[in-house]
Amino acid sequence: MGMPSSEHVDVPVYLARLGLEHEPPSLGALFRLHAAHVERVPYEDFEVQLGRVTSLDPAVSFGRIAAGRGGYCYHLNGAFSALLTALGYQVTRHPGGAQMPGDPAGIHLNHLPLTVSGLAEAPETGWFVDVGLGDGIHEPIPLLEGEYKQGSLVFGMRASEVTPGGWRFDHDPQGSFLGMDFAPETAVMPDFAEKHVELSTSADSGFVRTLVLQRRDADGVDSLRALTLSRLPGGKAVLESPAEWWTAIEDVFGVPRAGFTGEEQDRLWRQAFAQHEHHLAAGSEILPSA
Question: In this predicted model, what pLDDT tens digit does every residue of 194-212 receive, in sequence order?
Answer without folding.
Answer: 999 999 999 999 999 999 9
